[in-house]
């Protein structure tokens, strides 16, 4: 490890904030001369002057490093790239818009190094955001808490601290930055803590996410839950439902045929097989059953052939 702390900052059109934010970080870190640190700014395809400013800053402040994407890939991609390049023993992420306060950095660092947390998530207990954001956000946090079993109040806080091992071993893609603690937990990093942090209103620029964040956030939660449970064996999910459906269809068919014979035998009024609701139910159940089964099978083949990049995380080794 080259530094005590890597500060990873995703940047998308934040030109006004960057110099102030850098100064502020440097001021805070100057009070803690024993902590070495690097700043990593990931320009996520900004169309304003952000990149020029990052380049200028990187000449003035050392070590401040910048990485520029060719287009806007999203915050998750920016974080992922930052994580890959981070050389600090503790990696701290914060938003570029100065809503998160750098004053929290030393305490977050201590919680990871001294208290042994794998992840410490900021909690914007007193938020300075419009109500259209805070109320849905409460709901979102409640659902995520229930589904993941992680007791955090504020999953989507941009200010978080990670033990280096955590960020090197998880993969953040799509819009999954909202669920990094969930991804981490499913990868075996269980010591997840929380720290109340100061939060401020956005000073410059505007928010990059509208209300669609809640819909996408919810869909992401579904897929992340699903993938983490069934990635290794899609057949367990699809196969189970497929088999159930097929068995149901099978027995309904037997019943329909049996009844027909019975009616013929006893010379009762005979109904056309195709003239009753049960027939269609049986048909649908059989087809859906086979379809689900096939989906599981195809999923299984894909899993078999995809490289396992980050699956098994070794905690420690001995006697080598
Ligand atoms: N961001 C990014 N790529 C995007 C959207 C946002 O890197 O496509 C960055 C943005 O510059 C900021 C952070 O992610 O540093 C959080 O964005 P924002 O403040 O707009 O989100 P909010 O605070 O409204 O949740
Ligand atoms: Mg913000």
Automatic annotation (TrEMBL):
Q: Which GO terms describe its molecular function?
A: undecaprenyl-phosphate 4-deoxy-4-formamido-L-arabinose transferase activity
Q: Which InterPro entries match?
A: Glyco_trans_2-like (IPR001173), Glycosyltransferase_2 (IPR050256), Nucleotide-diphossugar_trans (IPR029044)
Keyword annotations for this protein?
Cell membrane, Glycosyltransferase, Lipopolysaccharide biosynthesis, Membrane, Transferase, Transmembrane, Transmembrane helix
- The superkingdom listed in its UniProt entry is Bacteria
Q: Where are the transmembrane segments?
A: 237-258, 278-299
Query: Can the keyword Protein biosynthesis be found in this entry's annotation?
Result: no
For the keyword Iron-sulfur, the answer is no
EC class name: transferase
Q: What is this protein called?
A: Glycosyltransferase family 2 protein
State the organism of origin.
Marivirga salinarum
């Amino acid at each position: 490890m080259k530094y005590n702390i890597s500060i990873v900052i995703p940047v998308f059109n934040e030109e006004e904030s960057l110099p102030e934010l850098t100064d502020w970080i440097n001021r805070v870190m100057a009070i803690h001369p024993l902590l070495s640190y690097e700043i990593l700014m990931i320009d996520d395809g900004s169309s304003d002057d952000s990149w020029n400013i990052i380049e200028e800053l990187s000449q003035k402040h050392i070590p401040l490093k910048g990485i520029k994407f060719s287009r806007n890939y999203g915050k998750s991609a920016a974080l992922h790239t930052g994580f890959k390049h981070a050389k600090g023993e503790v990696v701290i992420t914060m938003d570029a818009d100065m809503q998160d306060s750098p004053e929290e950095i030393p305490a977050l660092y201590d919680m990871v190094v001294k208290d042994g947390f794998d992840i410490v998530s900021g909690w914007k207990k007193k938020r300075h955001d419009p109500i259209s954001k805070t109320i849905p956000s409460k709901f979102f946090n409640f659902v995520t808490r229930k589904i993941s079993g992680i007791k955090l109040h504020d999953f989507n806080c941009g200010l978080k601290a990670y033990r280096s091992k955590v960020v090197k071993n998880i993969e953040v893609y799509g819009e999954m930055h909202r669920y990094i603690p969930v991804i981490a937990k499913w990868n075996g990093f269980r010591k997840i803590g929380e720290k109340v942090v100061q939060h401020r209103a956005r000073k410059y620029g505007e928010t990059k996410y509208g209300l669609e964040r809640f819909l996408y956030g919810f869909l992401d939660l579904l897929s992340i839950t699903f993938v983490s449970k069934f990635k290794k064996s899609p057949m367990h999910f699809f196969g189970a439902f497929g088999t159930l459906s097929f068995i149901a269809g099978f027995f309904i068919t037997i019943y329909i045929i049996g009844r027909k014979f019975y009616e013929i035998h006893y010379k009762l009024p005979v109904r056309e097989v195709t003239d009753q609701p049960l027939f269609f139910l049986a048909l649908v159940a059989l087809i859906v059953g086979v379809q689900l089964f096939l989906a599981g099978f195809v999923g299984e083949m894909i899993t078999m052939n995809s490289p396992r990049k980050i699956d098994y995380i070794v905690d420690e080794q001995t006697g080598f």
